[in-house]
Every structure is written in C-alpha cells, then in structure tokens.
Design brief:
Blueprint: H1 19-33, H2 39-48, H3 51-158, H4 161-176, H5 182-251, H6 269-273, H7 294-305, H8 309-327, H9 336-360, H10 367-391, H11 395-413, H12 420-428, H13 430-450, E1 458-459, H14 462-468, E2 485-486, H15 492-511, H16 520-546, H17 550-578, H18 582-587, H19 595-617, H20 636-652, H21 658-681, E3 688-689, H22 690-709, H23 716-724, H24 727-737, H25 747-753, H26 759-768, E4 769-770, H27 778-782, H28 789-804
Parallel strand pairs: 3-4
Antiparallel strand pairs: 1-2
C-alpha cells in the first residue's frame, strides 16, 4: 500500500457576506482545524445575541469539509483495491498454515498432557510444603511464645517480678506482632497490661509494708546509733579519767610520771554497723541490724522498668515526708522526759535511712530533697526543745535531754547533717540550766547543813577515808591514818563537797559536746556563784542561827578551814573536766570564795570565847586594889582564864588549823588585855596602888608565859603575835610602873613603847594611882615628908595630858 502525504489544513473561503462575517468564519475555521476550544466563540455569539450566525458558520464549515473528504477518498481508492487483492492471495497460505498449526497442536497436546499433570502435582506438592513449613514456623514461634509465657508465670509465682517484666517486654517486642494466632494475640494484648498492673500493685503493696516496717526499724536504728555514740563517749571519758588520774598522781609525786595510754582497737561501730553493708547495695540489707532496703530498691527498679520512675520518686518522697511529719508529734500522754529518747531516736533513724538511700539508691532521692527534709526536722526539733525547755523546772531533766540531743548531734554529724541549730538551742538555755542547778544545790546544801550535828566525823574503814577525804583532796598528809579515824571536820564537809563536785560535773556535762571547745570560764563563773553566793550564804545563815556553843563554833571554824582546801580541789577539778591545763586554772584563781562565812565563823568562835572569858574576868572585881603586898601567884581571875585557855588549846589544836587557832587566841588575848585596861579605867575601881599594879604585872606575865608556851604549836613569829595581843595592858602597866612616866610625852618613846595607849585612858587611870602615903589617915604621919619623884613625874604627866586635851 502507498502512503499519502499529509495536507495543510486550509479553511474554505466564503462566497459572500460582509467582511466581519468573513473574519469570524476564518477564525472559527482556524480554531476547528487547530483543535482549539470553541467555547469563546459560543459565549461571544450568545453574548452578542447572534447564535444563528454561529450555527450558520458551523454548517458552512461542515459543507466545505465534505468536499475535501470526497477528494481524499478518491485519491486512496486505488490503493484500497490493491490491498484487497493482496489479502485474497494470502487466504490459501493461511489455510495451509492453519492445518499445520492444528497438526502441531495435536502433537503438542499428546506430548504435554502427562507433563502438565506432573506439573500440577508438583505445584500442589510445593504448596503443601510451603503450608507445612509455615505451620512448623508458626508452631515454633508459638512454642517459644508459650515458653516465655510459662517463664513469666514461673517468675510471677516465685516473686521474681523484674524477670517477669523482662519476659513480657520480650513477648511484646519479639512475638506479639508476629504471632500467627489471632486468638493468642488477642489474649496477650489483654493479659500483658493486666500482668503489669498486677506487678505494679504487688510491688506497691510490698513498698507500703516496707514503709510501715521502716518506722519501727528507724526507731531501733536511731536508738542503737545513739547508744553506740554514747558508748564511744563513755570510753573517751574513761580514757580522759585515766589520764587525769595519771596527771594527778604525777603532780602529787605518788609514783613515777611515766605512763602510757592504752590503745584500744576502736573500730568505728557506727560506720561498720550502720549504713554500710559489705554486699554492695544490690539487696540493700544491713545484716544484723535488720536495716533492709531490698523492698524499696525492688519497687524502684520495677517502676523504672515500667517507665514510672518519676512517679515512684514523687510517691516515695511524699510518703517519707508524711512519715517524718508524724514523727514530729510529741505524745501528750507521757511527759517529754519519758518520750524524748524515742522522739529523737525516731528522727535519727529516719535520716540514717535517708542517707543510705541517697548514697545507694541510684537517684531515688536527691541531695536537695534530703536537705529539705533535714531543714524541716531541725526547725521542728528546735521548736520542740524551745517549748519543752521553757516548761522544765528541774536541772537534771534539762541535762538528760541535752545529753541525748548532743548524742543525736554527734550521731547525725557523722552522716553529714549540720546540727549547729540544735546546739545553739542548747547554748541558749545554758543560763536557765545553771540557775535551776544552783537552786537544786541550794536546797541540797541547806538539807546537808540542817542535818549537821557539829561532831567530828568518824571513819572506820579505808574506803570511807578515800570517799570522804582523798576524793576531795582535803587531806593534810599523804600518809593514810590508822582506823578508826576521827576527822577534824563534821559530815557537812564531805556532803557539801559532793554537792559542789556534782554541780561541777553537771555543769561541765551540760557545756561539753555543745559546740563550744573552751567553756572553763563559764563553768568557773557559775562555780564562783555556787561557792560565793549559795554555799557561803548557807554557811552564814547556819553560823548566825544554829551555832550556840563554843564546840559548835569551833567545829564550824574547822569545817571552814577544810572547805578552803576543798575549794582548791573544786577549781582544779573543773579545769581538768574542762580540758585546760591546771596552771591556767591556778593563774585565774581569786580569793577564797567562802571568806565571809570563814570570817563569820572565826568571829562567832571568838565572840563565844570572849563571852566565856568574860565570865572568868568578872573575878577581877575581887582584886584588892589597895593591897599591901603584890600577889606572887597571880590573881584568881587570871588563873581561871589560863586554865580555860589551856584546856581550849588542847581541844582546838586537834581540829583547828594553827593559823585559825592563832587568830582566835590573838583576838581573845586582845580582849583580855582590853578587859584589864577597862577594869582600871572603869568606875568600879576608884583608886589603886602600885602593889595592885605589880599584881596585874604578874597576871600579864602569866598570860605572856601562856603565849610563849604555845611556841611548839606555832612558829616563833606567831607566838610573838600572841604576846603582842596583850600590848595595851602591858604598855599601861609598864607606864604605871615606870620611874619616868613623863617619857610618855616623848613622841619617839611613845611610838616605841606606848603605841597602843590612849592618852585619855592614861589620864583617867593615872589619876587613880595612889602611893602608901595617900591611904586613909596616912597624911597625919607623913605631913612634911618629901614628895616621891615618881609621883611628882606622874602628876606632871597628868597635868600635861590634861592641858593637851
């Protein structure tokens, strides 16, 4: 066949019409030939109201194309005829080919039939094999799935919740989407969330049980920890006591100064027994303490596995905070003194547990949260202490609570908790404690003094001597006396010493372990108050109200001398307990704090002795003041006085220190001297002669001899001081017996020999002196006799002294 050339499409020309119609016809023909859309032409025709024109143009275009079609058909007619002839020639060939194909098909069918049957059998077998393989794979997958399910059930039944969750995670990730059984898949999709919920509830219940149990464990744990801190403190105190004993023995030279402190295998029980376990924190168990964190850590781990870590942290913190808040409740059924140990032990155990959880819990609780809980606890404990301390009126109660709080501070400081606020509360109530302690000691001292019988204390055994004498270092000799031993003091002395020593130890105990390293000045201040105000005041009251006899006054004076030695021990003991060198304590010593009571006791003893002596001195009224010859053996009154004084000295030297006895005797002798001078100066003696003065000179010599005889008991200087107590009477007698009494007017001689005499008394007494010629009716026999020069000098002295006055 022949192909015809493509012709250019040309729009036919119209025979008539105006130029506008022709242009529209050309545009429409071009658009149709080029395959463009006729929509614009249609819209334009209707818009202009001339749709008939458009229809006419389309019909015209259609008629013009019919002629063109005819021309094309004519051009291809010959080619079509030739093609039909070719087709007719091919019919025969097609028939032969058809018969050949039919034969070939018959042969193929006969040959391929068995093959097709075999192929069908093979395909069917292959499909069966695939189904079997798929079934085996499905069965294997199901078997593994069921094994995991069985393992999960096994772990659940044995309480291995974490392993059960691992099995569930493995089922979800490896088998759930690939499970061929829709029934099994639906069962797993329903059971897995239920099992997880069950595990969560179970660990939550275990955790809840642990929260209940840990409160009891915390209380026991706190008591144990504080008890171990107390034991450690006690061992430390015992070591210090041994050191003080060694130092004291060295100071007293009782044995060689070489000593060694024993080394103790001081394992840190707090560190090894509380809060540290050697198994790591895998199980959170602290062994013999019963401090088991396993349920907590298991619950935390399970919640981590469940993806609920943050929720569990918050739940744990809130529950522990509620527990701590409930621990703050102070029981109103019992006094705080009875419940304070449980109160503080509960809090201590709580924070020991929290420290352990913080260090080994893997982030279960943060440091900030622990600090927040501790700040809350410190604030509450300070508030409770402030309230309870403000109500307490017994020093021992404050001390017991303070000691336990300080042990609490020592215990928790080991775990890094700041306890300064608690110690500040204790320091704040230091003054109140000491005021209460002073009040208690005032009552005890008053009771001890009221029970005193003013009798020397009898000690039958050495342990009594050690307990009442050596323990207060009031012995006068390092030699142990023979027993039974009669002490120079009464039972009041050791009783008061024990009260003061207990005060020192209680004061040091309150000040110790309170955050202040140097507190000796505080202890000393209150010790001065105890001695200077309480004890001194009580002794003054005793002296002024209860002492009525010489023996009682002598016993009190002896007690004061012993207490003076005891005061040295008190300050040394306070220094030793406070941990400062003794030289610093001795450097800061003041005067004897009981000086008022000591002086009052001596004044009381002297006063009673003077009263007793005054009874003997009344015998001076029996003296013959105009005697013809002086008495060579002394007047009666002086003999009685000397006998009494000798008896007094024999008794007093057994209990009174020599210096006290010297001061008392000096005061008594001075009083006797004053009484002799007073007798001459008084109105009862109108006149006297030289022989009476010579008798008084013998009396004073006897008293001076009594003082000289005390030289073995006192030193030579003390004996001279006793003689000087008679200076007024001695100087007066010397003046009256002097051949030149006008020397009294010489300032140098007067200062040397008559310094104690009052010139007014000298004038009065000198006027009473009469010689033998002055006796009654003596003037008739002696008229015109020469005047005695001594008398003349004495009269001149009297006249001169009167002129001066």
């Amino acid at each position: 066949m022949q192909s015809t050339k493509s012709r250019r499409k040309v729009a036919p020309s119209a025979d008539g019409g105006d130029s506008g119609d022709k242009s529209e016809q050309l545009l429409l023909s071009s658009a149709i030939c080029n395959g463009e859309e006729l929509g614009p032409f249609v819209r334009k025709a209707f818009a202009s109201g001339r749709p008939e024109t458009l229809l006419h143009l389309l019909r015209y275009f259609s008629r013009s194309k019919e002629s063109e079609i005819e021309e094309v058909c004519k051009a291809h007619y010959q080619d079509f005829i030739l093609a039909v002839d070719d087709l007719r020639s091919l019919l025969s060939d097609v028939d032969s080919l058809k018969s050949a194909l039919s034969d070939s098909n018959s042969k193929l069918q006969s040959v391929a039939g068995p093959l097709l049957a075999s192929l069908d059998a093979y395909v069917e077998a292959q499909n069966i094999s695939k189904n079997v393989d798929f079934a085996l794979t499905s069965v294997a997958s199901c078997v593994k799935l069921m094994e995991l399910c069985s393992r999960a059930n096994y772990h659940l039944s044995n309480g291995n919740l974490y392993m059960a969750l691992r099995c569930l995670d493995s089922i979800e990730s490896d088998f759930l989407d690939k499970t061929p059984s829709s029934t099994l898949k639906r069962m797993l999709e329903r059971k897995i969330p239920a099992i997880r919920s069950h595990i969560e509830k179970k660990v939550s219940k275990e955790f809840g049980d642990w929260l209940v149990e840990i409160r009891v464990v915390s209380r026991n744990l706190g008591q144990l920890a504080i008890g171990q801190a107390s034991s450690a403190r006690q061992r430390e105190e015992e070591l210090r006591m041994k050191q003080r004993q060694a130092e004291e023995q060295t100071r007293l030279s009782l044995r060689d100064c070489a000593y060694a402190l024993e080394e103790e295998d001081d394992e840190d029980e707090l560190g090894s027994g509380i809060g540290d376990d050697k198994d790591g924190y895998a199980n959170g168990n602290s062994g013999w303490l019963g401090f088991d964190l396993t349920p907590l850590y298991r619950a935390y781990h399970i919640h981590q596995t469940l993806g609920l870590e943050d929720r569990f942290k918050q739940y744990y913190f809130e529950n522990r905070r509620l527990q701590l808040t409930s621990d703050f409740q102070v029981s109103s059924m019992n006094s705080f003194l009875e419940s304070h140990q449980t109160f503080f032990a509960q809090i201590a155990g709580f924070f020991i547990v929290e420290d352990r959880v913080f260090r080994t819990g893997g982030g279960l609780i943060s440091k900030f949260e622990v600090e927040n809980l501790w700040e809350t606890a410190v604030s509450k404990m300070c508030s409770v202490l402030e309230d309870q301390f403000s109500r307490m009126q017994t020093a021992n109660h404050l001390l017991l609570i303070k000691d336990y709080v300080s042990l609490l501070g020592v215990t928790l400081r080991r775990y890094g908790y700041p306890v300064d606020a608690l110690l500040d509360v204790l320091s704040k109530h230091r003054d109140k404690y000491h005021e209460l302690l002073l009040s208690d000691c005032r009552k005890q001292i008053a009771e001890a003094l009221a029970a005193d019988k003013f009798e020397q204390m009898l000690m039958k055994k050495e342990y009594e001597y050690s307990m009442n004498v050596l323990s207060f270092q009031i012995q006068t000799s390092d030699i142990i006396p023979a027993f039974p031993y009669i002490a120079p003091f009464s039972s009041t002395v050791p009783d008061c010493c024990r009260i003061v020593r207990s005060f020192i130890e209680d004061s040091v105990s309150f000040m110790s372990y309170g955050g202040h390293l140097e507190f000796y000045d505080v202890v000393k201040k209150y010790l001065d108050r105890l001695l200077g105000e309480v004890l001194d005041g009580a002794l003054l009251k005793l002296i002024n109200t209860s002492v009525h006899g010489v023996s009682q006054a002598m016993q009190v004076a002896a007690n004061m001398a012993v207490l003076e030695r005891a005061c040295d021990f008190f300050f040394r003991h306070a220094a030793q307990l406070s941990g400062i060198p003794l030289r610093m304590a001795e450097r800061g010593r003041r005067l004897f704090p009981l000086n008022k009571a000591r002086d009052a006791a001596e004044v009381m003893l002297s006063g009673l002795l003077k009263t007793k002596v005054d009874g003997f001195m009344q015998l001076i009224e029996n003296v013959n003041w105009m005697v013809d010859e002086p008495s060579q053996g002394g007047n009666e009154y002086v003999n009685e006085v000397i006998i009494y004084l000798e008896t007094l000295v024999a008794t007093a030297q057994q209990i009174l220190p020599t210096q006290v006895l010297k001061r008392v005797l000096q005061d008594v002798l001075s009083h006797i001297s004053g009484q002799i001078v007073g007798a001459l100066f008084g109105d009862s003696v109108k006149r006297f002669n030289v022989n009476a003065i010579m008798g008084l000179d013998i009396d004073i010599r006897l008293l001076e001899s009594f003082a000289d005889n005390l030289a073995p008991l006192f030193s030579e200087g003390d004996a001279n001081q006793l003689k000087n107590a008679l200076a007024e009477s001695r100087q007066l007698i010397n003046l009256l017996l002097s051949n030149h009494p006008e020397n009294f007017l010489n300032p140098v001689i007067r200062e040397k020999s008559y310094s104690t005499l009052d010139y007014r008394k000298v004038v009065t007494i000198s006027e009473k002196l009469r010689d033998h010629s002055d006796r009654l009716f003596g003037t008739f026999g002696s008229r015109g006799a020469r005047q005695n020069p001594k008398k003349k000098s004495l009269d001149s002295l009297i006249k001169r002294l009167k002129d001066v006055s």
